[in-house]
Amino acid sequence: MMRAAIYARISSDREGAGLGVQAQEQDCREQADNLGWTVVAVYTDNDISAYSGKPRPGYRSMLAAIEQGQVDAVLAWHTDRLHRSVTELEEYASVCDPNRVATHTVKAGHIDLSTPSGRLVARQLGAVARYEVEHMVERQKRAKIRSAQSGTWLGGRRPFGYEPDGVTVNELEASAIRSAAAAVLAGASLRGIAKEWNAQGIATATGRQWDMTGVRRVLLRPRNAGLMEHKGQIVGPAQWRRILPEEQWYALRSFLTDPARTITTGNARRWLGSGLYHCGACGQTVIGSTANGRRAYRCRRGCVSRTLTGVDEYVSKVVMARLRREDLKHLLSAATPSTDQHNLEELTVTLRRRLDELARLFSQGQIDAQQLSEGTRSVNTTLSHVRDQISEAYANTALEGVADAPDPGEAWSRMPIDRKQAVVDLLCEVTLLKGAEGRPHGWRPGQTYFRPDLVRITPRS
Q1: 3-state DSSP call for residue 69?
Q2: To which CATH superfamily is domain 171-256 assigned?
Q3: In angstroms, rounded to a whole number, what is the distance separating the alpha carbons of residues 336 and 447?
Q4: What would the pLDDT profile of 255-308 be if each residue is shown by its tens digit?
Q5: DSSP H or E segment with residue 363
Q6: What does the alpha-carbon distance between residue 399 and residue 419 come to, in Å, rounded to a whole number?
Q7: 3-135: CATH topology
Q8: In the chain, at which end, N or C, are there fewer CB atoms within 10 A of the end residue's CB?
Q9: How many Å apart are CA 380 and CA 374, to the nearest integer?
């Protein structure tokens, strides 16, 4: 009696139901009954391509069973289910031949790997299968390039901010993206955005909760600005409606990818001065800490230590007083796009039109490849400088929602800690000076004491 092992595999199973391998197994079982073989094992690799070269656990387990003499024959739906490369075929034959294991397929019949002519037929079938899959991959690549160049959606999982068709804007999610982009440019943290979205019940496109990495990934997508991306490169405008103005997205990308910007993965900052106030002795930023029930700002080198609550209350009073001054109106320019910024955005449109014109002239033979290359390089250099200026303008919006509020000081006091820090950093530099705090004149036991002269607040120009 022949002990048969069934091997079934499909390359892609988007639904994850394994229906393809189940159908192959059923056909193979019927073939085993026709041959009078007994099925003793079934090996499957679901959603794994043989062409990709990825490990196939089911296939490797079957080879091990053959080497151990546990099976006498292998049943597969077709030879291309077993292997799509000559290398794999040779290994398979080298394992089957010494163990006298027969190979039979539902579609191609018996494959005799024990004779030179049988192995020749198997190699030819493998070569044809390899050609077919390589041809298919090439067609898919060309189709993706054409889709990218035309700006059409390539399909796949629903992108956050859009409906399942990948084109129609989901207004609720789009509004969250717009608010998050403005908030991040104004000084909000990615962790804070993730926490806010989770609290509002806004889930990811797959129904999960947000973390800072997921928020960053969504905000960096070119599709938010109506741009088409292919292999990490922006190749042109897309055919769907954008969620963010293109230049705002470029500013956001510049901000989030700036190597000088540190993105922490630890606990969120709890105190106003953590990572913001500076030590007057060494210049490093201070951290908030608690020791023996006393909260204090301490320099990492141990130069200074100041009572945390006292420093924060003092800085808060100074900042709120500054925000309530009558001359605050001139700071509104930092919270709204200026005329110069609008002019810069118009200039970027003109520069992109020049790139299109260069491409048109080259396609018509009016300029050669060298002229196209030099012209494109020159325009892109200018475009990069312009976008840097726009990024600086957008990144200087910490006062958005503060300077134009009825009571700017009160509006600032209600903001999350990261937004508060952004405003403080915009208005002034806080330095904790070295020196013993000492007890002020008239101090009595049980009273707290604080010396503002050891906190230097320098307004920024």
Answers
A1: coil
A2: Putative Large Serine Recombinase; Chain B, Domain 2 (3.90.1750.20)
A3: 45
A4: 788 765 544 444 456 788 888 899 998 988 898 888 777 888 988 888 888 888
A5: helix 339-363
A6: 9
A7: Rossmann fold (3.40.50)
A8: C
A9: 10
